[in-house]
Amino acid sequence: MRTTQDQLKEKGLTVSRSDAKSPRNDVVREKPKEKLSRKEWEEIMGVNRETYQKQGGAYRRRR
Length: 63
Description:
This protein is 32% helix and 13% strand.
């Protein structure tokens, strides 16, 4: 004795779940890596930025 679903599959009236999957594009494309120099990294991180301090109520560049 078969189930109702098996009979419907046999007659082609329904699509089984394994057949219903559409092919997906699972390929992930990687972007080319950009090589940054040491100077560029320091600039990004703000290593050589000017510093200021308060002197007599005004902000002045630190020496």
